[in-house]
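Bench notes, afternoon.
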Amino acid sequence: MALCPLLELHPADNEGNREALARIARWCGRYTPWTAADPIGRGEEPDGVLLDITGCAHLFGGEGELLSTLHRRFCGLGLTVRCAIASTPGAAWALARYGQNTLSIVPAGGEADALRELPVAALRLDGAVVDGLMRLGLKRAGDLYGKPRAPIAARFGAEVARRLDEALGFEREPISPDLPHVSHRASLSFPEGLTQLPHIEEAVLRIVGDLCDVLQREQQGARRLELQLFRVDGEVTQLRAGTGRPSHEAAHLARIFREKLARAGDDFDAGFGIEAITLACLAVEPMPPMQEGFDRNEARLHDLERFLDRLSNRLGQDRVLRFEPRASHIPECAVVRVPSLHGITPAMRAWPMHRDEHRASMLGGSLPRPLRLLPLPEPVDVVAEVPEGPPRIFRWRRIAHKVARTEGPERIAPEWWRGNRQHTRDYYRVEDSEGCRFWLYRDGLYYRDKEAPRWFMHGVFE
């Protein structure tokens, strides 16, 4: 501060730096899906972004054009960057930080010559290891070429040889971003940024159509999709959607994303424009071609499924549920609620068997059950003629009911694998003097359980 009185000091914002690198890595996803914040710097905090452009460079005019485009775009965002392309992440990391040129491209097999004159710090070694190597006169990466490894490993550990092999390509070092597996992916780029919502919706319809054409040829259907909108200012908007059954209908999938964009309304910010769009299938399932029938029920079922897809993506998948059967005689455990987007699971196909078993139990003497149960059984006060007999008078929700008719009991034993947490239940179907019908059960047996049995209301017949 004595040399520069106008110097300003600010504490380092490591968390902000990590978030900024993560945003930059997501924005670089328009060039390749394999992007990740660089975790291999000498310091504790990452200071770069790694891109695996294998098979992607030709889409942007080659490696040189891609490198120039990246550098120009980052400079446009107000960032000072150094870029390098090499066959190994280690060589690209070294040239980007210690190379003479701002932009560097290493031809395949030229890693040894490119790293020869760089300092040993370019091998991503710890500071103490670098200082030790320099004291021994090993100041450049080329000084390690051909040296016996046993003495170096005995003094500095195996990291020196491993980093050197990674940089030269003798040991593999894949880039592994924290991203789900993507089996199908499509992208669109625009010469000018899209700012109007109708134009963005039209672009979404086009990219969905391109992806659905590929899915249809491969007899696949999308279950979960992710749409990424890349803004000119470096921000990325992500939208995810799902379907209950595999689908490759472009109009249906595009409508789901169109409704998501419309729901954002004024909150959707295109910034200075959307310059690229990518659509990825996060989950696909086989969808062989089927002949369309003339059954109206099938058409209605298809329309219902598409309606449920739109409703689930609009309201949230945890808010649109369907029932799934379970192998249990306990009424509240016989079905569970699952999101509609989970689709038709093997348990869902067990509904006919579940229904037939219920009908068989009714023919065998079991009582009909109400279609709807209470969310939780509610306690009731019951007066019975004998302890093990049916109720004669019961009070539920502060209202007394005089029983006119009863049917039962239907005994349901506890599931043995749950231990002693449940008691035997005796269910009764009762009708009061006003004609209202209820489904009650006695929890426990007088002659076996230590605690006195209690009565509960479990459902009401409509």
